[in-house]
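Re: coenzyme A structure - here you go.
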Amino acid sequence: MGYVAMHVMVPEAEILDISVRRQKQGNGLGKTLMKNVVAHCRQRGVETIHLETAAGDDHALAFFRSMGFSTIRRRQGYYEDAGDALAMALDIGGEP
Ligand SMILES: CC(C)(COP(=O)(O)OP(=O)(O)OC[C@H]1O[C@@H](n2cnc3c(N)ncnc32)[C@H](O)[C@@H]1OP(=O)(O)O)[C@@H](O)C(=O)NCCC(=O)NCCS
């Protein structure tokens, strides 16, 4: 129904891909996946989770922002076909 691909290099982690099957989107599965990622990372001692997403992907941006990610920089022309990328980060260090 969904998956997350990531790598962890404590104290940093990077989400390479997160996806929920199209017919199941909008039902909270993405949020559940992401909460599990955060819990797993926190347990491992990760302080910051990074990711990159297409600047024009309003749905993905709304999703990541709803999970607390902030944009830290724009990478112009990063994707050959999808334009700029936004580098986003979520600080989880120091939280319970
Ligand atoms: C992005 C993705 C993983 C989100 O998973 P999901 O199961 O659809 O998301 P959820 O139902 O858990 O929604 C979580 C939050 O995201 C936001 N969101 C979800 N769908 C949205 C939509 N269509 N429009 C705007 N915001 C949306 C909402 O803030 C939502 O919180 P709320 O329900 O409390 O309002 C999923 O839509 C997906 O697989 N998309 C295609 C792949 C992709 O773009 N991956 C990200 C780039 S790597």
